[in-house]
Amino acid sequence: MQITRAAEYGVLGLTALARRPLGEVVMIETLCAEEDIPNSFLGKILQSLSKAGIVKSARGSGGGFSLARNPSEVTALEIIEAIEGPISLQRCLDEDLGCEHSGGCALCSLFAEAQERVKEVFSRTTLADLTGRHIPNGLVRQARSRASDAHPATPHPTPLPVAGRIPLEAESTR
Amino acid sequence: MQITRAAEYGVLGLTALARRPLGEVVMIETLCAEEDIPNSFLGKILQSLSKAGIVKSARGSGGGFSLARNPSEVTALEIIEAIEGPISLQRCLDEDLGCEHSGGCALCSLFAEAQERVKEVFSRTTLADLTGRHIPNGLVRQARSRASDAHPATPHPTPLPVAGRIPLEAESTR
DNA sequence: CTTTTCCGGACCAATTTCGTCCGGTTCAAT
DNA sequence: ATTGAACCGGACGAAATTGGTCCGGAAAAG
Question: Which chain A residues are closer than 8 Å to B136 by Cβ?
Fold first, then answer.
């Protein structure tokens, strides 16, 4: 009854992408560093997202991934289903298999309703929403180590950006 | 993102129990036959339900399981959590583990909402509701074979009980 | 004391999850 | 043209989970 890590990482990776200007091309490695995701795994996940048209890939040097659409037009449901396939809380609800019970099935009716609710939440939440709420672990750590480089004596009060936008490398360093 | 068979079988087994007068003691084997559940597996599942106080067990000859409470006072959520442990759509939401992200986490907020919806559906649905909706495969098959025993020439129009109560062995045979 | 039935732990096979790895392809820059 | 950077995609594999089975034991009834 849990989402897979793949879907989890997919969402996180996309928020990292969405934090940037639309269309900016970013390497897998950079995204992984920001969100604490195993490197080669995110590669696989982004392939699925690319096939689903959520992300565009560019090969060769200077290549990487970029968002294919505006973050406010990508729903969590799309992301998750692109990675895991259609959501189905129970066997009965598998679209092509169907329920093996003859007349009525206690499980079908119960899980169908729950599944609808879940899909409703997921389809109402956009990547923009998610990005707004999210503070990536990786970026926070990076900021912290940069800060302690600057004032090596300061032990605790390293001030972290806590709300709103998080400064990217380009702006925050020097 | 799917419920386990254990939980599935647990719900089905309980509907079989709930179809009978409250307190009636039924053997595992009978329940399995009615709902098409592997025999020894349901044993395991019923142990959990017994520990959770949903079902009472009686050992020895004439023993078996009986519902501990009125079907309308047992929720689907109780049943499922008795078998699978607390529902958690995502790691962040594991009660004791918690979320490893520092400030805000896109995943927490998303899945917390979805999870609440699911739990709401499950806790609003009672065993009585489920039993009312359900027509067990096993019983239908049993009825069919009994009927074709009686009229071996009748190929198709074997009339099956389709809605409402389903006659149990005791009443339907002879 | 024998039979019946659940208890509960050990065990096992299959599947899924969570990745890694590597050769191939594409693209840019030299 | 060559080189290096980066994704593509399939194969591979270890670990965890799922979906059960099995068996010796305990308890209850006759």
Answer: 101
Q: Which fold has domain A5-133?
A: Arc Repressor Mutant, subunit A (1.10.10)
Residues in Cβ contact with B145 at an 8 Å cutoff, skipping those fewer than 6 apart: none
In chain A, what percentage of residues exceed pLDDT 90?
71
Separation of B41 CA and D21 C1' (Å)? 8
Chain-centroid distance, C-alpha B110: 29
pLDDT value of residue B174? 34
The parts of chain B modelled with pLDDT lower than 70 are 102, 146, 150-174
Domain B5-87+127-133 has what CATH class? mainly alpha
Tell me the three state secondary structure of residue B22. Answer: coil
List A58's β-bridge partners, or say none: A64
**pLDDT tens profile B123-153:** 999 999 999 999 998 787 778 776 777 665 5
Q: How far apart are CA B174 and CA B165, in angstroms?
A: 18
Q: Distance between CA B142 and CA B151 in Å, rounded?
A: 14
Let me know how long chain B is. 174
C4: residue with closest CA to C1': B61
- Which one of B4, B76, B136 has the shortest CB-CB distance to A110? B76
Span CA (A120) to C1' (D13), Å: 37
pLDDT (average), residues A64-74: 98
